[in-house]
């Protein structure tokens, strides 16, 4: 059994996969190291090896690796920046500054597509990356996602106050809002869709229609109907992680 971890700034996404077929046996999202260990200890199956990608500080990552080793007696492979991975050349001038989660996701996408691809990660922040058919990473864009836009408006505009439970109701349609929550939520969604549409147009300028689109991240469902041919892959980063940290 292989434990795979995607350690973000706020949450740790994890899954336990079988060897050698890679079937997902268990998975979840933990808000802390303690919660992660509690969930893993409660599993009937125990990991025999592990690999992770982390955008946390080196100290935080080392602490988690040490706790996993202490609890399960396993060594943990940690993904690191590289100039080339699985046929993809890193497009950043300083390759080590490209976020590891982005690097693994775009490398995994190219590995699956085998041709030019546009990768859209729609989470707290929104990122796009363009990979040519040659494997050259052309770069990408970063902008605030819906959670960041919403929170900024709540934080800096005194009269915008509402709870998260009301969000779903506000997004049932996209007519001009007749309340503050409708105006904010629909406005943020339209900004997100506008960003996605612009990325799609840029990709078409590059490659015509000869490319694949990959969607990942928690808000992928908000734009999936715009991109009926897109490959929605919540675990795309794990595809790249397996390429970066192969376990025999």
UniProtKB/TrEMBL annotation:
One GO term describing the cellular component: cytoplasm
GO annotation, biological process: coenzyme A biosynthetic process
Tree of life domain: Bacteria
Alphabetically ordered keywords of this record: ATP-binding, Coenzyme A biosynthesis, Cytoplasm, Kinase, Metal-binding, Nucleotide-binding, Potassium, Transferase
Compartmental location: Cytoplasm
Pathway(s) per entry: Cofactor biosynthesis; coenzyme A biosynthesis; CoA from (R)-pantothenate: step 1/5
Enzyme class: transferase
E.C. numbers: 2.7.1.33
Cofactor entry: K(+); NH4(+)
A molecular function GO annotation: pantothenate kinase activity
CDD domains: ASKHA_NBD_PanK-III
Binding positions for substrate per the UniProt entry: 92, 99-102, 180
Residues forming the catalytic site: 101
Family matches, as InterPro entries: ATPase_NBD, Type_III_PanK
Reactions catalysed according to its record: (R)-pantothenate + ATP = (R)-4'-phosphopantothenate + ADP + H(+)
Binding site for ATP: 6-13, 124
Pfam families, per the entry: Pan_kinase
Binding site for K(+): 121
Cofactor note: A monovalent cation. Ammonium or potassium.
Family the UniProt entry places it in: Belongs to the type III pantothenate kinase family.
Subunit description: Homodimer.
Protein name: Type III pantothenate kinase
Organism: Pseudomonas indica
GN (gene name): coaX
């Amino acid at each position: 059994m292989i434990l795979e971890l995607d350690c973000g700034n706020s949450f740790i996404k994890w899954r336990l996969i079988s060897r050698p077929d890679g079937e997902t046996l268990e998975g979840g999202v933990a808000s802390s190291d303690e919660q992660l260990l509690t969930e893993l200890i409660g599993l009937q199956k125990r990991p025999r090896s592990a690999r992770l990608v982390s955008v946390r500080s080196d100290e935080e990552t080392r602490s988690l690796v040490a706790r996993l080793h202490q609890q399960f007696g396993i060594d943990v492979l940690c993904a690191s920046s590289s100039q080339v991975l699985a046929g993809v050349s890193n497009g950043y001038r300083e390759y080590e500054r490209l976020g590891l989660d982005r690097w693994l996701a775009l490398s995994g996408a190219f590995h699956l597509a085998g041709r030019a691809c546009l990768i859209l990660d729609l989470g707290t922040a929104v990122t796009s990356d363009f990979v040519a058919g040659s494997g050259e990473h052309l770069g990408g864009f970063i902008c605030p996602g819906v959670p960041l836009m919403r929170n900024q408006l709540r934080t800096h505009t005194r009269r915008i106050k509402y709870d998260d439970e009301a969000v779903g109701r506000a997004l049932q349609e996209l007519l001009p809002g007749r309340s503050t929550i409708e105006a904010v939520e629909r406005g943020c969604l339209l900004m997100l869709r506008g960003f996605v549409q612009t990325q799609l147009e840029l990709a078409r300028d590059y490659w015509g229609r000869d490319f694949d689109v990959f969607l990942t991240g928690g808000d992928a469902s908000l734009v999936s109907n715009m991109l009926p041919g897109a490959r929605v892959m919540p675990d795309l980063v794990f595809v790249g992680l397996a390429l970066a940290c192969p376990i025999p």
